[in-house]
Amino acid sequence: MVMTTEYHIPVMLRECLEGLAIKPEGRYMDVTFGGGGHSRAILKLLTTGKLIAFDRDEEAIRNVPDDDRLIFVHHNFQYFKNFLKYFDLLPLDGILADLGVSSHQFDTAERGFSFRYDAALDMRMDAQSEKSAMDILNKYSAAELERIFREYGEFRKARRLAAAIVEQRGIQALESTNQLKEIATPFLERNQHNKGLAQVFQALRIEVNGEMNALREFLEAVPDVLRPGGRLVVLTYHSLEDRMVKNFIQKGNTEGKEEKDLYGNLIRPLQPLNRKPGTAGADELENNPRSRSAKLRIAERI
User: Quick check: pTM over 0.70?
Assistant: First the structure.
């Protein structure tokens, strides 16, 4: 198994903590615990406060510290409202969401997230989930595959790639990342080989894990659990995520439609605190490659 020395280096840690404006007695939520880097930093700033953290990856459990101020939930963050009610943690003072795949997941070859390794086409963040990338590639129709690659990967030759996959699986079932790479290679843009493969793999991963639906449901529930003045801090890693987060913060809905009241004021539950997304500094870019594509958005509950 290929692994890095650390499970996951927290991206833009200082900026995230500043964005949360943590109160020692406050209530906070980390919806993507992963290696626990952000959560541990939050705990250091709490006294009587509480932190609830979510992660559906079985491997994240081993990173959970023994701390009475932390409640860890091995579950998809889609259902966080139910858990907040159960643990009597409403309302919250701050929410952190570090979206995407952790360094550990990318670097663990057998998980199938990365095109750098030959592995089974898995890509499940929750190993107990029924649907893997292999299932999608071998069972979805050409039209469904085209939609996934076009919408979630923004892949220009989505129709041709989908047709090639359907043709190839008629000869031999698709089971490995190398098989997918071989099929995709003729449709990659010249001198952008890695970018094209990243788009294909991203599209499959998003579909396998229902990432966009989970993000939409999460954002729409945020105003119900944040107290007035509470903070939302979100790190995104691709344009689809960032667009949805930006729309919700700035326009009040994930579609980006402007709705105004009788006085012409924009109807939205959150106030953006940074008009342009924050990005990693030079030192972090050098030390943590994952931070290259990260965008940080911060908002406050009105």
Answer: yes
